[in-house]
Amino acid sequence: MAASIGRLLWAVEKPRWSANRQVCQGLETLLSPVKLCASATIITVRTKKRHYVPPRKQDSSVDQEKAARAAGLVIRQQYMERSINISCTAGIFDPYIPPEGDARMSSLTKAGFKQRAEQIKQSATSQLAVRKVKEHDEEFNTKGFALKAQDIYIEAHNCLVNFDKVTLHKLVTERCYPDMVRGNRYKTIRWKFLQSLEAPRLVHVRCPDMVSKGNLYGQVTIRFHTQQNLAIYDRFGRLMYGNEDLPKDVLEYVVFERHLINPYGLWRMHGKIVPAWAPPKEPIIKTIMIPGPKLEPWEEIKVKNIEIPKPESVQWNK
Question: How much is the pTM?
Answer without folding.
Answer: 0.64
